[in-house]
Amino acid sequence: MKSKFKPVFNFIFGPVPSRRLGVSLGVDLMPHKTCSLDCVYCECGKTTHLTTKRKEYTPFDQIRKELDIFLSSHPHLDSITFSGSGEPTLHLGIGEIIKYLKKDYPEYSISVLTNGTLFHSLEVRDAVAQADRIIASFDAASDTVFRTINRPHPSIDLQEMVEGLAALKKECSNQVWMEIFIVPGHNDDDHELKQIQGAMDIIKPHQIHINTLDRPGTEDWVQPITQEVLKRIQACMHNVSVVDHAKHAAFPDEFSGDLLDMVLSTVKRRPCTAEDISEITGADLNKINQHLDILLKNGEVVKKKMPRGTFFSRI
Hints:
Layout: E1 12-18, E2 22-27, E3 34-35, E4 49-50, H1 60-71, E5 79-82, H2 94-104, E6 110-114, H3 122-127, E7 133-137, H4 143-149, H5 158-171, E8 175-181, H6 190-203, E9 207-211, H7 227-236, E10 240-242, H8 259-269, E11 272-273, H9 274-281, H10 285-297, E12 301-306, E13 309-314
């Protein structure tokens, strides 16, 4: 059967198979790479615009137009997810976009992937209040480790961040999850883990997830977690689950549009193996490898070997 592939958009991407969210349509509000943190493990690469300034980084009307085009056929989706090239809560229009989706496409669940740095602001908490699920990162509870792993904008205060996340959980009627990315040698000792647990006891999230390196990160020295470290973390903390990198969602439909553009659009936002892209698009693996070879020869992507396979990412 002939494969079909979806048209490429500027502000939405996927759907992609998510380990936790199922079939997820991404909404990328930010120019690459605009963020309030410059995390050593980030799969999107080094932050080039480190900021806490909120503004309309990308035009609301164009984002809404792309969403209308894609959602008009009412595709099967488990989540519409705000994520991508930077910190989505920096966008002043995120609240309006969430309200628009809730009004015009109420059948869809909305998730926000965030670094959690801006929730000390009531305005930011109100903006995401209608999201069904907020997944916030929290990797360190001591200032030294926070600045080593997350390399924040100088204005960000760690205690203020904890208080903001606690306020979000208290005020929000929907799910608030926390994700802890373990960087061996930095936030995996018993003392730091107990401090992180103390912060979780203040925030009181509905779920706590432990994550580790699966794709190429910003810094080459960041390594995946070992089973020994994982067991120690589970002993130091309570009510934590581990992100299962082997679990993927299945797609009910094929895509329409240009395959080469789809491949490039996918690896621009997250490093992927050829097998990942084949699973996302439903395309034959040999065709995916042919297109990746073209992109490599054109100098549009680079590749890097990892324990899970060879990953392709943007230049």
